[in-house]
Structures are given as C-alpha cells and as structure tokens.
Amino acid sequence: MSYPPDFKYTKQHEWIKADGDSATVVITNYAQESLGDIVFVETPKVGAELTAGKAFGTVESVKAVSDLYAPASGTVTEVNGELATAPEKINKDAHIAWIMKIKLKNPGELNSLLSAADYEKFVAEEGGH
Amino acid sequence: MSALPTTPTIRKTALNAVHRQMGAKMVEFNGWDMPVEYPTSGGIIAEHMAVRTGVGIFDVSHMGDIRLSGPGALAAVQHISMNDAARLAVGQAQYSALLYPQGTFVDDVIVHRLADDEYLLVINAGTREKDFNWVRENTRNFDCRVENLSDDFTQIAIQGPRAVVVLQKLTDADLSSVKFYWVMRGTVCGLRNILIARTGYTGEDGFEIYIPADEATSARVWNEILKTGKDLGILPCGLGARNTLRLEAKLPLYEHEISDTINVWEAGLDRFCKMEKPEFIGRAALEKARTEGLNRVLTGIEMIDRGIARDGYKVQDETGREIGYVTSGSPAPFLKKNIALAYVPPAFSEIGRELKVDIRGQGVTARVVPTPFYKRQKKT
To answer: Which site from A11, A43, B340, B374 is most exposed, i.e. has the minimal number of CB atoms within 10 Å?
Structure first.
C-alpha cells in the first residue's frame, strides 16, 4: 500500500493532513497491520488540548495496547464516533478511518514530520513486515 | 510478560520455516520464536472462530515432554503430581500439576499413561528445564527412569468440532473410539505408531499428535493436515488465538493464573488435587492452607463499561480501593465480550458482584460472572 504524498507522518505511525490550520489525524496502514485485529479505540474528547509528541489516546488489538501520540499540538474539534462501535474499520482501510480532527496551534510544526517517502523508508527499516 | 529466565539463543521448532513461509507474525514466547497469528488466516479473531466453529491447527512443539518408566514409575508420578495417577487406565490422560512443598505450582501438566509402567508428562515451554530438573531430583528414590523427550517431537494440535473429521482422513486409528483425555497410537500421514491424544488447550474437542521432530516430516504432516482440512475451512492458528481460546475456557497459563506463589485452592483447581492420596509434594501445606481459609480466589469477570482489562491491571472495589489484580484479560472473540480472570478476596468473588478495573487510571466497571466463560456442548 502506498502512502499518500500530501500527508505528513510520524515515527509513532500516525499521519496528519492539514488544510490551513485544521488537520485530520489517522494511524498508518503499517500500524494497523502490526497491531492486527483492532478492537478498541480510545479518543480524547472534543475540546481536549494536545501537545505534539504526547500520548492522547490508545488503540487496542486483541493482544496489545498501543498509545497514540499527537503528531502536532492543537485542540480536538471532532472525533470519529464510528470507531467506538466499529474499531475494525481501521483494519479495513486505515487511511480512511480517521481518528480525529484538530485545530492546529502552530501549522509550522508539521514541517518537522516525515514525508511519505521518508516514512516508507523508516517503516522498511523498522519492519520486516 | 513472564520474568522467567530464558535461554539466550531463541529456539525454533521444526516448523519455523513453514510459519515464516506462510507469512506468520512471529514473536518471542518463553525463549521460543513462535507464530502469534497468521495474517493470511485473517488474524487472531478469524483463527479463534475457526477453532470454535470448525477446525484449526497449532504448532505446539515448544511444549516439553518427560517420560517416566519402570517398576516405580507410578509411585514416582504419585509423589510429584497432585492428581491421582492410580486411576489412569493404560491409554488414559489426566490434567494435574507439579507442586512445591508450599502447595504452589512448579507447573501444570497432562499425565498420560502410555503403558503399565510408562507415563508421559506434557509440560509448558517456559518451564521445560525447571520441570525436568524438578522431576529428576524428586524421583531419585524411585525405581524409574526419567527422560527428557522434549526435543524428540513435533507436537501439532488439531482443534475444533471438525478436528476429528480432518484427522480421521489421515489416520487408520478409529478416532471415534478415543474419548476426550484418552490416547492411542496409529499411523498418521503414513507415519507408523504415532501418539494421538484427544487433548488440547482451547476448550474444544481436538487432538494433539506427536510426530518425529525432523523438519521435512514436520512440514509434510503440517501441510497435509492443512490440505485435508481445506474444504472445512481449516486455519493455521498462532499463540494469539491459543491464548484467547484458553482464556474463554478458563484454562490456566503458567505465571498468570498459576505460579510459584499461588496455591491450588486459590487457583480453584481443587478437583484435580486428590487430597485422599496419602502423600504427594505439597499435600501437607495444602492441608494446612485449607483449614486457614483463602485470602484470594481466581475469579472470572466481564467488563460492563467500555474498556479491556489486561494482564496485571489492578482490580478495585466500588470505592476504588485496590483489592486484587488481573491475571489474564482480553477481548473474547467468540463471546464478543471483554473478559478477564483476576485474583480477588473471596468476599468480592460472588457472581454478579460489581468491581472496577483500573484501566489507565480510570475505574472501569466490571461484573463477576460464572466460569468457564465458554463451555462447549458435549456430544453424547
């Protein structure tokens, strides 16, 4: 699966797509493949303040619990309520089953994240999958 | 998860290359490089469901095997095992445990009586050396030979309501004559005199076969079983599904529900511990513990509120006071609930009682439920 070039990626396997100062946060296909069957997603509440690099929620597979890390600082404006009852949608298409939308505090932060090409390289080195 | 020392080199079963070829996700488990799930099967949930509703196969060659044989074999087994091996007919097996003098667990085992004076103990992967040394040390005064056969076998578990259909196509043994927890020998995939046990660790009907441990033979048998079961939807299954299956059936896992600090009564394994036997290691301590009463008991809980209890999470009473801990917790794929086993004081273990599980700092409501969480319907 190819990683869309207009997104920015983190080493914690999330991506973020910005449109002005609002952005959508999603976990990557690599992350859902590594986790396996996703059975639970814990998202922050609308209005929660996120700090870049800090944990903001969790995603759980049958076997494991993984923290989700904020790719950028900002305020949560919307969460994907569908994931509360159908977390397996992330397995079906990780790049469509978005986690939340945030209002960016500083859109410039995204410049420090990985490009699609860099992320693919990073995953290839880390992976083996 | 377990704090047991493991050998520095990771061990591989004879089927390791086969698992990798099939694209299995591999993990280290008690010093072994084992498949946790097969994405080509559809992953843990699909594997779990195959075993509950059809058939699945597992490589369980990491399990260990100890043979005791000779005129004193029965007496030796009786001394080290809490169940009553004198009740076993030739060809019969029983669940049991090896205990420390304190009444806590060296390991849980399946004792098979293979012949008049021959017993096979099947033991856990993480405790192989410890168990073998324990058995050898504690049977020195008996007229019996103790052999570690752990590396001699590839052990394949064929599990699920359709397991019998698949295996019957590959063997001349009449499987309908083998009852649950009995063993027989037969030709399997052209290999003669193979031990076939109607045992497993899934809560389903099924078989475990013990074949020669060379790679070529192991791969051939594994692939023949998969091919034969294809029409029935057979799936290769990893340790992930093995864990969720055994948890639904409340089968204990060493270092979780049982350990060297947990005794038989706490673990609720009373019916496998035969106190009417005059002597076995651990008996005196258990006699004493029984009169003293229990501080904690293994208790099944089901999450009511959203959240998954995981191994090691704290259990609280309704006021948030810590009263115990989760030994194993997971989503239960067949039951479609989030279930857990936990040690809590007896006063908190009555069915229906509400408890809380500390999930990342939040007290999430759970309820005590009857166990096993899942029980297969036995055919008559």
So the answer is: A11
pLDDT of residue B8: 65
Q: Six-digit token pair at A17?
A: 């797509």
Asked whether B232 and B166 are in contact (CB, 8 A), the reply is yes
B118-140 pLDDT, tens digit per residue, is 999 999 999 999 999 999 999 99
Secondary structure letter of residue B231 according to DSSP: G
Q: Is residue A20 part of a domain?
A: yes
CA A10 from centroid of its chain's CA atoms:
8
Size of interface A-B (CB pairs under 8 A): 36
Residue B7 CB neighbour total at 10 angstroms: 11
Chain-centre distance of CA A106, in angstroms? 18
Confidence check: pLDDT of B2 > 60? no
Q: Find out whether B45 and A62 touch, Cβ atoms under 8 Å.
A: yes
Q: How many domains does chain A have?
A: 1
**Interface touch B45/A62, C-beta < 8 Å:** yes
Angle between helices B128-138 and B73-80 (to 10 degrees): 120
Residues of B with Cβ-Cβ distance to A65 under 8 angstroms: 308, 310
Phi and psi, residue B353, nearest 5°: -60, 135
Cα A124 to chain centroid, rounded: 18
Q: Domain B295-373 belongs to what architecture?
A: Beta Barrel (2.40)
In chain A, residues with a C-beta closer than 8 Å to the C-beta of B240 are 36, 62-63
Share of chain B above pLDDT 90, in %: 96
Among all chains, which residue has been given the structure tokens 């409340």?
B250
- Name the residue among B13, B247, B282, B278 with its Cα closest to residue B152: B13
Tabulate helix, strand, coil % of chain A (nearest 5). 25, 35, 40
ipTM for the whole complex: 0.88
CATH number of the domain located at residue range(s) B64-148 in this protein = 3.30.70.1400
CATH assignment, B16-63+152-248 = 3.30.1360.120
User: Strands, E, within B149-304: which ranges?
Assistant: 153-159, 183-188, 191-197, 206-212, 235-236, 297-303
Domain residue extents for chain B: 16-63+152-248, 64-148, 295-373
Q: Under DSSP, is residue B345 helix (H, G, I), strand (E, B) or coil?
A: coil
Nearest Cβ partner of A62 from B25, B44, B307?
B44
Q: Which domain holds residue A66?
A: 8-126
Helix pair B44-53, B239-248: axis angle to 10 deg: 50
Chain B residues near residue A128 by CB distance under 8 angstroms: none
What would the pLDDT profile of B62-90 be if each residue is shown by its tens digit? 999 999 999 999 999 999 999 999 999 99
